[in-house]
Specification:
By secondary structure, this protein is of the alpha+beta class. Helices cover 22% and strands 34% of the residues. It has a 3-stranded antiparallel beta sheet with strand order 1-2-3. The radius of gyration is 20 Å and the shape is elongated.
Length: 106
């Protein structure tokens, strides 16, 4: 999909011949996304009042084609058990990367 965007293919135009052969592969992978889920709560109820430390971690990275960032919580419980939980993420196709990954974290 990203390549089509860079090529400037409009939604109502036919794909170039070299890209048409790749399209069925992409369509086969899309249904796999239906199994992806993220829990609504960060941690179970018993842990909420028993943590020793609570940290918010942010990570950002970029390539020549895109950039992304993720935020997650890291908790150390009173019995020294370490747990992590996904908070949020963001990604973008980025023709001009620059320092956009840093701005996504802020």
């Amino acid at each position: 999909m990203q390549k089509e965007w860079f090529l400037g293919v409009e939604w109502d135009e036919s794909l170039p011949e070299d890209r048409i052969s790749l399209w069925p592969d992409w369509c086969e992978e899309v249904p796999q996304l239906t199994d992806f889920s993220i829990p609504c709560c960060y941690f179970s109820e018993p842990l909420v009042n028993k943590f020793k430390t609570l940290e918010l971690h942010l990570f950002s990275d970029a390539s020549t084609k895109a950039y992304g960032t993720v935020a997650y919580l890291r908790v150390t419980s009173s019995n020294k058990e370490i747990l992590t939980s996904f908070v949020a993420s963001k990604n973008r196709i980025a023709p001009k990367i620059g320092i956009n990954g840093c701005f996504a974290v802020s």
